[in-house]
Structure formats: C-alpha cells, structure tokens
Design a protein that fits this description.
The structure holds two protein chains of two kinds. By secondary structure, chain A is α+β, with helices and mostly antiparallel strands. Chain A contains three helices and four strands. In chain A, strands 2-1-3-4 form a four-stranded mixed beta sheet. The N and C termini of chain A lie close together (11 Å). By secondary structure, chain B is mainly alpha-helical. Chain B has one domain. Chain B has 16 helices and no strands. The chains are: A alpha+beta, B mainly alpha.
C-alpha cells in the first residue's frame, strides 16, 4: 500500500490536492493511505517551502501547486 | 486608452439603466462600472504577461540565492524578492522555516515576508493606472523601506532568541555549517520552453484573478460609495490638514480591517481624490494590508508571543511614522 502525505498549512489548495489524490486512487483501484500534514515542524523536515507538497513513501515528489491528474497517476503506479 | 471603459460605463448606466448623470447614485454607479471593468481588463492582461516572465522564479531559488549573501545587501535583496516572488500567504510558515534552515538570518527572512504582502505586481500596476507614477514610486519605496528597516531592527535586537525552539535550532545548526541537506524539486524549472511558460501563466492568471476579483469589487464598491456619498470637501475640511492624531487613528482603524493590496488600492484612490492627505491614506492602507491579526496568529507556530508582539508593534510604529513623514513632506512633492 502506498503511503501518501500532503503537506500544507490547511489552505484550500492543500485540501483539493488530498481529495484529488484519493479520487484518482479510487478510480485506479489502488490502495493508498492519504494523510494531511499541517504541522510546521514536519513540513520543515522535508525542506518544503511552497505548499501544497506531496510525499509518496517518504519521498518528496511535488511542491507548490495542485498536481495534475497525470502526475498523480504516475506516483500511484 | 482607458476611454473605452468610460464609454462602456456611460452606455450602461446612463443609457441602458437610464440613470441621470447628475444624481449621486448615477455618478457612484458610473464610477463603479468604469473602475471595475478597467481594473479587470488590466489585471487579466498584466497578470498573464508578468507570469510569463517570472515563470522560472520560485521561493527555492530565492532561498538558494539569499543563503549566499552578506547581511547588508541581504536585507535589500530579501525585500526585493519579497516583492516579486509569487507566493501565497498560506506558505509563510514553510518559507520562514525553509529560509531559517538554510541559515538565512531572521531579519532577512522577515524583510522578505514583510514586503511580500505590501508589494506585488498587481498592486504596482493598479497604482500606476489609478494614481500615477509618482505615487507608485512612493508606495514602493515605503513598502521596501518597511521590509528592510524592519529586518535590520529585528536582527539588531537578536530576534532569533524568541523563535520557537525547533525553528531556532534549525537556524543555529545551519549557521554552524551543518546545513540540512535540502532535497526537493529545486531545479526542475530551469530553462522553460514557451509552452510550459504559457501553461504556467494561464494557470496563474486564472488562480490570481479567481482570488482577487471579489476584493476589487469590494474595494471599488467602497470607493464608489465614498465617491458618491461623502459630500465633496468633507474629508478635506475635516482631515485635510493631516492633523497629527489622524495618522495613528488610521493605523488603528486598519488593524481589524483586512484586505490584500489589490482590494485596498481602489479605496486608496478615492480617499486621495476626496482630499485625504497622502500620509494618512498610506498609513491606513499599509495597516490594512500588512497588520492583519489572522496572519499574525499563524506566525505563532514559529515565534514566541514576545517576538510576535514586537513585530506587530514595530509595524504599527513604522506605519505611523511613515504617515507623519509623508504628510510633512507633501508640500514639497
């Protein structure tokens, strides 16, 4: 199972990102665990400065915008 | 060039709706339609063009650049980048921490964060079209001045003492040379082809416009109300001499009010046109934009109360001083 974290201080874009990932995972039938991380200290550990950012299995893959659906599909595969 | 918007407003309000141009309601609505249509058209065109140019600028790059700078010049560049880097205020905490863990002094980081809400391309272009180049230059100088001097001041009182412990630790470690290895998507934006730039600019335009259009309507609406319903000369005869208390009064009034720079500029225009002195207007507007309580509460995550209060008071004092200065200098401008 993929473990996905969405980093961000709770702005609307971050919520949108998390929803989009969950939706895409459901469509593709891939089991994922999506968690939203709002804690500043954790965000700092990943060295992220522009949110929303996406971490897949502890690996930072994206930051600064709501990702495109084809990007999300790539992370999930 | 802007006549087309005047004509549009005349056609709509005096023609289609059939209001009389000599009534208060008529002039207020005319002003509203003219300004909103003009500002919307300008915004869309300008956000797109500017986004094309700055598509490859991002906070990661700015951080890498600032991390290598000496202090003196660092405040200037911190403030300058704060003005031009696209970044949403909901990212100020991650940016603060990112800068700190790259060893950038608190003052330079704050120069970036303080200037950022005050100056951005939308605000500058709106000012240019509504109030002219002279006023725009004053606004930019004041905005950057607040960032630079504020940053210098915070470093001179060793503000890093009052950070939350994990943030202070990250800063300390980085300054000892054990900089965190910053992984990430830093360099992915190198040499962008036009299609990517266009895509970025298009998204940026939609996003920014989607965020600011309601502020413009609100701002211009308020401006129109002032325009049509405050008796001509009332502001001027009551506050026109720049009475000393009117400046701190304007700053205090601005605290509970919150707007971004885009929304406040149309209000600024009508206050000035109605005869409110430049310094008082500026103090009010800067306070509305930069000293907003919700944003400050967010900073609590990285700062102790003491520092938070210091920064807040520093801003209020700065805006008041600027207001007095500008009012005193107005006769010579």
């Amino acid at each position: 199972m993929k473990n996905i974290q969405v980093l961000g201080s709770g702005c609307t874009k971050c919520k949108k990102t998390a929803e989009l990932i969950e939706e895409t995972a459901r469509e593709l039938g891939i089991a994922t665990q999506v968690t939203k991380v709002t804690d500043a200290q954790t965000i700092m550990v990943y060295g992220v400065m522009s949110t929303p950012a996406v971490v897949v299995d502890e690996q930072l893959v994206h930051s600064g915008s709501v990702p495109h659906s084809n990007e999300i599909e790539q992370w999930l595969k | 060039m802007f006549l087309v918007f005047t004509d549009l407003a005349s056609w709509l309000i005096y023609g289609v709706v059939g209001l009389d141009a000599n009534t208060r309601l008529g002039t207020a609505l005319h002003f509203f339609v003219e300004d909103v249509s003009k500002i919307f058209a300008l915004l869309i065109a300008m956000i797109y063009v500017i986004a094309l140019v700055r598509a490859s600028l991002n906070v990661e790059r700015v951080r890498n650049y600032l991390a290598g700078k000496r202090r003196g010049i660092g405040y200037l560049f911190g403030s300058l980048f704060g003005a031009i880097t696209p970044f949403c205020s909901c990212s100020s905490i991650p940016v603060f921490l990112g800068f700190s863990s790259a060893g950038i002094p608190v003052g330079i980081t704050m120069a970036f964060l303080l200037t950022s809400p005050l100056i951005n391309e939308v605000a500058i272009l709106l000012l240019l079209s509504l109030l002219g180049w002279k006023f725009t230059l004053i606004y930019i100088a004041v905005g950057m001045g607040v960032g630079i001097l504020g940053g210098l001041f915070l470093d001179s009182i060793k503000a890093e003492r009052w950070l939350q412990s994990f943030a202070a630790e990250a800063l300390h470690k980085a300054q000892q040379g054990a900089s965190l290895t910053v992984t990430g998507v830093t360099e992915k934006m190198e040499s962008m082809p036009f299609s990517r730039r266009h895509q970025f600019a298009k998204e940026e335009t939609l996003e920014i416009f989607g965020r600011v259009w309601k502020w413009v309507i609100l701002g211009v609406g308020l401006g129109a109300a002032l325009h049509g319903f405050i008796p001509e000369g009332w502001l001027e005869s009551h506050l026109g001499d720049g009475q000393w208390w009117s400046v701190p009064g304007a700053v205090l009034l601005g605290i509970p009010l919150y707007s971004n720079a885009t929304g406040v500029i149309p209000v600024m225009e009508s206050l000035i046109v109605n005869g409110l002195p430049v310094g008082t207007t500026m103090a009010f507007c800067m306070s509305t934009v930069a000293a907003s309580l919700p944003e400050f509460i967010l900073l609590k995550q990285v700062m102790q109360w003491r520092l938070l209060v210091i920064v807040f008071l520093m801003l209020l004092l700065a805006f008041t001083t600027i207001g007095w200065l500008l009012n005193a200098l107005t006769p010579y401008m």
